[in-house]
Amino acid sequence: MGNIVERDLPEGAWKDLLPHALSIIEDIKIHGTPDPFWTFGGGTVLMFRYQHRHSKDIDIFVPDPQYLGFVTPRLSDVAAAVSADYVEDQSSYVKLIRPEGEIDFVASPNLTEAPFEIWNIGGQHIRVETAVEIVAKKLWHRGDRATARDLFDLSLVIEHEPEALAKAAKFLRKNAEQFISQIASRAAVLKAQFAVIDVLNYRPAYDEAAQRAVTFLESLK
Question: What's the CA gap between 29 and 135, in Å, rounded?
Fold first, then answer.
């Protein structure tokens, strides 16, 4: 599986949630495919990489919506034991809601050329998405619905990995114009949301992050 990355990871609710996600994946091996392909991404992985903001939820990405039938409490006893409180769209995601946070299983193939690394997390070898893959997915799937956290995360990766992110241009361009438009037209709402992000070691002002995003996205045209 290539080089295994060993990292010291922060404490947090993710440590309680991840074993539940892994138990569901183990069940896929029994009732679905013996070697299911999945990656661990989202804001919590960005937190692992850059300590930019607190994030606790678990985002698991699978390449095919057929996987979702094995992770919904509607059809899986193991998933139902993890949480009876859930939301799903059979073609795109299953969200399991627990007191300590959420576990999302999302049908989304990898986008970038080198989308993950193999990390040792609690003795498990897990495909952990790169920062570029995480941001590419955010903009590809929901760039037309800009959120404060997505702007925050985009600004972070532009600042730290601009050259690598530019290589994902074809995925960022899809919703770039709508994203740029929304961070201007919805600035009042997004600024308020941006101000209450639970930040760690990254503290840009809204206008700074917005300008960084606009400048970068416009450079990709």
Answer: 29
